[in-house]
Amino acid sequence: MTTDSTPPGEVPEPPTRPRLTREYLAAAALALIDAHGLRKFSMRKLGTAVGFDPMAIYRYYDDQEALFDGVAEALFDEIDVDTLPWDGPWQELAREYCLRLRDTLLRHPHAVQVFATRPVRSPASIDTGVKMLGKLQAEGIPPAHALRMIRCLREFTVGHALAIAVTKLGAERRSRKPQPGSPDYNLLAEAADATALDDHFEMGLTAILRGFQHSAG
């Protein structure tokens, strides 16, 4: 599996004109979402960007929701799961997967909502899930319990990325945190000034993995 080298926000060149592919359309849709935001995306704008009649897109995707499934799959492909530390301890594998997933999503803050609101059912995603369950089973963790662990890690990582993305895309400007020296400047505001927006992710990830290690014996 290889990652797409196209910078976020730039529509990639079609592999062969005038032939479209599902993968190319998903990559182009992701680029438009990166550049203009999810709310401004439409199938018509995608058709214009790739130089085709928008109706041509419907030969590859039934509707916009199906296209967004493809966008989520394109995001998953950026994780490059083939190069994860599969031969190391399961904790190392889980940590690296979560870090890559977080970094991938935060490269595309406008698209985090797309990934967060649909299951990724591509063959690559399914194969990765099976391989992870097999890895944990080999460590003595039953598959059902392993799946619960993987779901917790995914939800923690995606939820974190969604919160950070929303903040960076404008929510931070609406913060009413009092400034130092003001009468309302309290302990909570002081603590917030002593932290970074996303410096708690690895702390939380470590705590979760330690808890899983304890529960798995």
UniProtKB/TrEMBL annotation:
GO terms for molecular function: DNA-binding transcription factor activity; transcription cis-regulatory region binding. PROSITE patterns: HTH_TETR_2 (PS50977). It holds the Pfam family TetR_N. The keyword Transcription applies. InterPro entries: Homeodomain-like_sf, HTH-type_TetR-like_transc_reg, HTH_TetR, Repressor_TetR_C, Tet_transcr_reg_TetR, Tet_transcr_reg_TetR-rel_C_sf. It comes from the Bacteria. Keywords: DNA-binding, Repressor, Transcription, Transcription regulation. Residues 42-61 bind DNA. GO terms for biological process: negative regulation of DNA-templated transcription; response to antibiotic. The keyword RNA-binding does not apply. Residues 19-79 form the HTH tetR-type domain. This is Regulatory protein, tetR family. It comes from Thermostaphylospora chromogena.
